[in-house]
Amino acid sequence: MVGQTVMRIVRPCFKPDHQLAVGGTRDGLLWYKDTGRHACGDFSMALVQANNLLEDASQVEAAPLLLSHSSSTTFVGIYDGHGGPETAHFIAQHFFPNLKKFATEQQTVSVDVIRKSYAATEEGFLNLVRKQWLIKPQLASVGSCCLVGIINEGVLYVANTGDSRAVLGRLERGVIKAVQLSAEHNASIESVREELRQFHPDDPRIVVLKHNVWRVKGLIQVSRTLGDAYLKSTEFNREPLLARFRLSEPFHKPILSPEPSIEVHKLCTEDQFVIFASDGLWEHLTNQEAVDIVNCAPRNGIARRLIKAALREAAKKREMRYSDLKKIDRGVRRHFHDDITVVVLFLDSALVGKRFYGGPLLSLRGGDGASTLTQK
């Protein structure tokens, strides 16, 4: 009864007076939102397409996560799809609502809430694969990495499946330092290969070096994902799935895991900003290089600047000019670089731990324009 009374009092505080479109700008294969406000400061967001179909999805949300609380929350999601865009788009549609649901049930944001959100999103997508199995079996071969960041009451939660990355820019004795906050799950990392071998002791081919690249079962580089149903359950590893995705030997437990690695970090005044990006950025820039770029350049358009720096490096590796790389169309562009998505959150120490959120409610999707800003 008390909870219902509180909700009746609080809910009008979040009722929008009007909504404004706040989608970004598209320039060829580039999409960007140069600047905006999240619950704890400014942000910048950008993406560039390389695949014939953009397989990345992303979002930034700023709102109280619990309607019974007025504490400010910022949510960032980077979803690096593979095999198609469907899983990444599904995560963009369902992860944040799942997070709100479990946070409301437990009346808090916690590691357990985040784990449940991953599990519910995974199960939701696998159910979709089941429903469409006979008409679209290839959905079983589509998956996505899933990197999320949540800032709530002065605490930053970073959760990850796959090889996207979150890097903190921290000021130490007047020098900006890069601190990686996310664990990565890529078979190129020895500890990941060892983890796979320990979990599958009876499978000598759980990781295979193929064309000088380590792959799980010779098929995929990442060991933890959402989707990829064909490597989660034998019910999806059969006809009518294409033969190249079907394993010749049966498996009795999931080969890939949807379980995220989660880091909990109490923000302090030395923490200046966080870079969230798909692995396409980190293929060309080190953590420190990215942090130095953000630290030395204007905030406005900084995500776009990071992508430009990565593309310049990609062009240099192929001994070509950046201006020529930009002329290459999607699809062919994938031979030079991957889809790249970047979100930079700047951290205003005066707002990070603030319990009352008086700013606009933001919901921004990278690239698709399905975004709103609610002015209170």
UniProtKB/TrEMBL annotation:
Top EC group: hydrolase
Keyword entries, A-Z: Hydrolase, Magnesium, Manganese, Metal-binding, Protein phosphatase
GO cellular component terms attached to this protein's record: membrane
UniProt keyword annotation of Magnesium present: yes
Cofactor(s) of this protein: Mn(2+); Mg(2+)
EC code(s) of this entry: 3.1.3.16
Any GO MF annotation of the entry: protein serine/threonine phosphatase activity
PROSITE patterns on file: PPM_1, PPM_2
Pfam families for this protein: PP2C
InterPro entries: PP2C, PP2C_BS, PPM-type-like_dom_sf, PPM-type_phosphatase-like_dom
Catalytic activity: O-phospho-L-seryl-[protein] + H2O = L-seryl-[protein] + phosphate; O-phospho-L-threonyl-[protein] + H2O = L-threonyl-[protein] + phosphate
A GO BP entry: regulation of intracellular signal transduction
Residues in PPM-type phosphatase domain copies: 39-347
The family this protein is said to belong to: Belongs to the PP2C family.
Protein's recorded name: protein-serine/threonine phosphatase
Organism of this sequence: Oryza sativa subsp. japonica (Rice)
